Amino acid sequence: MGSLYSEHQTWLHRVPAAIKLIFFAVLGSVQFLLDSSNVLMVSALACSLLFASLGRATYPAFKLVRAVLLAGLLIMVFHAYMHQPVLGMVSALRLFSASLLGIALTLTTRSRDLLSVFESLLSPLQRVGIKTERLALQLAMMLRFTEHFFVVWKRLDDAHRIRTGKAGGLTILAPLTIKMLVSARRVADTLELRLGE
Protein backbone atom coordinates (compact mmCIF):
# COMPACT_ATOMS: atom_id res chain seq x y z
CA MET A 1 0.00 0.00 0.00
CA GLY A 2 1.22 3.50 -0.79
CA SER A 3 2.09 5.88 1.97
CA LEU A 4 2.44 9.64 2.40
CA TYR A 5 5.02 9.12 5.13
CA SER A 6 8.13 11.15 4.31
CA GLU A 7 11.60 9.72 4.78
CA HIS A 8 12.92 13.29 4.76
CA GLN A 9 13.55 13.81 8.47
CA THR A 10 12.05 16.88 10.14
CA TRP A 11 11.83 18.12 13.70
CA LEU A 12 8.34 16.58 13.94
CA HIS A 13 9.72 13.10 13.16
CA ARG A 14 11.61 13.27 16.45
CA VAL A 15 8.44 13.90 18.50
CA PRO A 16 6.95 10.62 19.87
CA ALA A 17 3.81 9.45 18.05
CA ALA A 18 1.71 9.48 21.25
CA ILE A 19 2.50 13.15 21.95
CA LYS A 20 1.81 14.15 18.35
CA LEU A 21 -1.47 12.25 18.26
CA ILE A 22 -2.73 13.71 21.54
CA PHE A 23 -1.52 17.24 20.75
CA PHE A 24 -3.06 17.27 17.27
CA ALA A 25 -6.29 15.66 18.49
CA VAL A 26 -6.69 18.37 21.14
CA LEU A 27 -5.85 21.15 18.68
CA GLY A 28 -8.20 19.71 16.08
CA SER A 29 -11.01 19.47 18.64
CA VAL A 30 -10.44 23.04 19.82
CA GLN A 31 -10.99 24.21 16.23
CA PHE A 32 -14.57 23.01 16.46
CA LEU A 33 -15.18 24.79 19.78
CA LEU A 34 -14.15 28.16 18.40
CA ASP A 35 -16.65 30.40 16.61
CA SER A 36 -14.64 33.57 16.05
CA SER A 37 -13.42 33.85 12.46
CA ASN A 38 -10.53 36.08 13.60
CA VAL A 39 -9.30 33.50 16.13
CA LEU A 40 -9.70 30.74 13.55
CA MET A 41 -7.67 32.78 11.05
CA VAL A 42 -4.84 33.01 13.58
CA SER A 43 -5.17 29.28 14.20
CA ALA A 44 -5.09 28.54 10.45
CA LEU A 45 -1.97 30.70 10.13
CA ALA A 46 -0.31 28.83 13.00
CA CYS A 47 -1.18 25.46 11.41
CA SER A 48 0.17 26.72 8.07
CA LEU A 49 3.45 27.74 9.71
CA LEU A 50 3.71 24.35 11.42
CA PHE A 51 3.10 22.62 8.09
CA ALA A 52 5.58 24.85 6.25
CA SER A 53 8.22 24.16 8.91
CA LEU A 54 8.34 20.56 7.65
CA GLY A 55 10.02 21.77 4.45
CA ARG A 56 10.67 19.16 1.76
CA ALA A 57 8.67 16.56 3.64
CA THR A 58 5.49 18.38 2.54
CA TYR A 59 6.14 17.93 -1.22
CA PRO A 60 4.16 14.65 -1.55
CA ALA A 61 1.14 16.31 0.07
CA PHE A 62 0.86 19.45 -2.09
CA LYS A 63 -1.92 17.99 -4.22
CA LEU A 64 -3.81 16.98 -1.10
CA VAL A 65 -3.50 20.49 0.34
CA ARG A 66 -4.78 21.94 -2.95
CA ALA A 67 -7.80 19.62 -2.72
CA VAL A 68 -8.47 20.82 0.83
CA LEU A 69 -8.25 24.45 -0.32
CA LEU A 70 -10.68 23.73 -3.16
CA ALA A 71 -13.08 22.02 -0.75
CA GLY A 72 -12.85 25.04 1.58
CA LEU A 73 -13.55 27.39 -1.31
CA LEU A 74 -16.60 25.38 -2.34
CA ILE A 75 -17.87 25.46 1.26
CA MET A 76 -17.48 29.25 1.34
CA VAL A 77 -19.28 29.66 -2.00
CA PHE A 78 -22.12 27.42 -0.84
CA HIS A 79 -22.60 29.36 2.40
CA ALA A 80 -22.34 32.68 0.59
CA TYR A 81 -25.13 31.47 -1.71
CA MET A 82 -27.13 30.59 1.44
CA HIS A 83 -26.47 34.13 2.79
CA GLN A 84 -24.20 32.77 5.56
CA PRO A 85 -20.73 33.97 4.49
CA VAL A 86 -19.30 34.08 8.04
CA LEU A 87 -20.39 30.51 8.72
CA GLY A 88 -18.78 29.48 5.45
CA MET A 89 -15.50 31.11 6.39
CA VAL A 90 -15.54 29.53 9.85
CA SER A 91 -16.23 26.07 8.39
CA ALA A 92 -13.52 26.44 5.74
CA LEU A 93 -10.95 27.61 8.30
CA ARG A 94 -11.77 24.68 10.58
CA LEU A 95 -11.42 22.22 7.69
CA PHE A 96 -8.14 23.75 6.55
CA SER A 97 -6.53 23.78 10.01
CA ALA A 98 -7.64 20.27 10.99
CA SER A 99 -6.56 18.89 7.61
CA LEU A 100 -3.09 20.44 7.86
CA LEU A 101 -2.63 18.90 11.30
CA GLY A 102 -3.75 15.49 10.03
CA ILE A 103 -1.46 15.68 7.00
CA ALA A 104 1.49 16.75 9.16
CA LEU A 105 0.84 13.75 11.43
CA THR A 106 0.68 11.41 8.43
CA LEU A 107 3.86 12.77 6.86
CA THR A 108 5.91 12.37 10.03
CA THR A 109 4.53 9.25 11.74
CA ARG A 110 4.83 5.61 10.70
CA SER A 111 1.69 3.47 10.80
CA ARG A 112 3.23 0.98 13.20
CA ASP A 113 3.94 3.80 15.68
CA LEU A 114 0.29 4.87 15.55
CA LEU A 115 -0.77 1.25 16.02
CA SER A 116 1.39 1.03 19.16
CA VAL A 117 -0.24 4.18 20.53
CA PHE A 118 -3.73 2.85 19.88
CA GLU A 119 -2.88 -0.45 21.58
CA SER A 120 -1.56 1.37 24.65
CA LEU A 121 -4.55 3.71 24.86
CA LEU A 122 -7.05 0.88 24.51
CA SER A 123 -5.28 -1.63 26.77
CA PRO A 124 -7.40 -0.77 29.89
CA LEU A 125 -10.45 -2.11 28.02
CA GLN A 126 -8.94 -5.61 28.17
CA ARG A 127 -10.04 -5.76 31.80
CA VAL A 128 -13.68 -5.82 30.69
CA GLY A 129 -13.06 -8.50 28.07
CA ILE A 130 -12.67 -6.37 24.95
CA LYS A 131 -10.06 -7.58 22.46
CA THR A 132 -8.24 -4.29 22.07
CA GLU A 133 -5.63 -5.58 19.60
CA ARG A 134 -8.30 -5.95 16.95
CA LEU A 135 -9.85 -2.57 17.75
CA ALA A 136 -6.45 -0.89 17.53
CA LEU A 137 -5.76 -2.68 14.25
CA GLN A 138 -9.10 -1.49 12.86
CA LEU A 139 -8.32 2.12 13.79
CA ALA A 140 -4.85 1.87 12.27
CA MET A 141 -6.24 0.28 9.10
CA MET A 142 -8.83 3.05 8.78
CA LEU A 143 -6.09 5.69 8.91
CA ARG A 144 -3.92 3.66 6.55
CA PHE A 145 -6.66 3.31 3.95
CA THR A 146 -7.42 7.03 4.09
CA GLU A 147 -3.76 7.70 3.39
CA HIS A 148 -3.66 5.02 0.67
CA PHE A 149 -6.72 6.54 -1.01
CA PHE A 150 -4.92 9.84 -1.60
CA VAL A 151 -1.74 8.11 -2.78
CA VAL A 152 -3.64 6.08 -5.38
CA TRP A 153 -5.67 9.12 -6.41
CA LYS A 154 -2.46 11.11 -6.98
CA ARG A 155 -0.89 8.30 -9.05
CA LEU A 156 -3.95 7.95 -11.26
CA ASP A 157 -4.24 11.71 -11.68
CA ASP A 158 -0.56 12.00 -12.63
CA ALA A 159 -0.88 9.14 -15.13
CA HIS A 160 -3.97 10.73 -16.68
CA ARG A 161 -2.22 14.10 -16.87
CA ILE A 162 0.77 12.55 -18.66
CA ARG A 163 -1.47 10.83 -21.20
CA THR A 164 -3.90 13.69 -21.87
CA GLY A 165 -2.32 16.85 -20.49
CA LYS A 166 -5.36 17.40 -18.28
CA ALA A 167 -6.27 16.65 -14.67
CA GLY A 168 -8.11 13.37 -14.13
CA GLY A 169 -11.16 14.80 -12.36
CA LEU A 170 -14.20 12.54 -12.39
CA THR A 171 -12.76 10.34 -15.18
CA ILE A 172 -10.48 8.58 -12.68
CA LEU A 173 -13.30 7.89 -10.23
CA ALA A 174 -14.07 4.39 -11.61
CA PRO A 175 -10.44 3.14 -11.72
CA LEU A 176 -9.84 4.69 -8.29
CA THR A 177 -12.81 2.80 -6.87
CA ILE A 178 -11.67 -0.47 -8.47
CA LYS A 179 -8.11 -0.09 -7.17
CA MET A 180 -9.31 0.68 -3.64
CA LEU A 181 -11.62 -2.34 -3.67
CA VAL A 182 -8.79 -4.57 -4.91
CA SER A 183 -6.49 -3.22 -2.19
CA ALA A 184 -9.14 -3.81 0.46
CA ARG A 185 -9.62 -7.39 -0.79
CA ARG A 186 -5.88 -8.09 -0.69
CA VAL A 187 -5.57 -6.72 2.85
CA ALA A 188 -8.60 -8.75 3.96
CA ASP A 189 -7.10 -11.93 2.45
CA THR A 190 -3.75 -11.24 4.12
CA LEU A 191 -5.36 -10.64 7.51
CA GLU A 192 -7.42 -13.79 7.13
CA LEU A 193 -4.31 -15.84 6.43
CA ARG A 194 -2.31 -14.32 9.29
CA LEU A 195 -5.07 -14.25 11.88
CA GLY A 196 -6.63 -17.53 10.77
CA GLU A 197 -10.18 -16.10 10.73
TrEMBL record:
Transmembrane segments: 12-33, 39-57, 64-82, 88-107
Localization of this protein: Membrane
Keyword Lyase carried by entry: no
Recorded superkingdom: Bacteria
Main location, first listed in the record: membrane
Bilayer disposition of the protein: Multi-pass membrane protein
Keywords in alphabetical order: Membrane, Transmembrane, Transmembrane helix
A Pfam family annotated for this UniProt entry: CbiQ
CDD domains per the UniProt record, alphabetical: EcfT (cd16914)
Similarity section: Belongs to the CbiQ family.
Name of this protein: Energy-coupling factor transporter transmembrane protein BioN
Organism annotation: Rhodoferax lithotrophicus
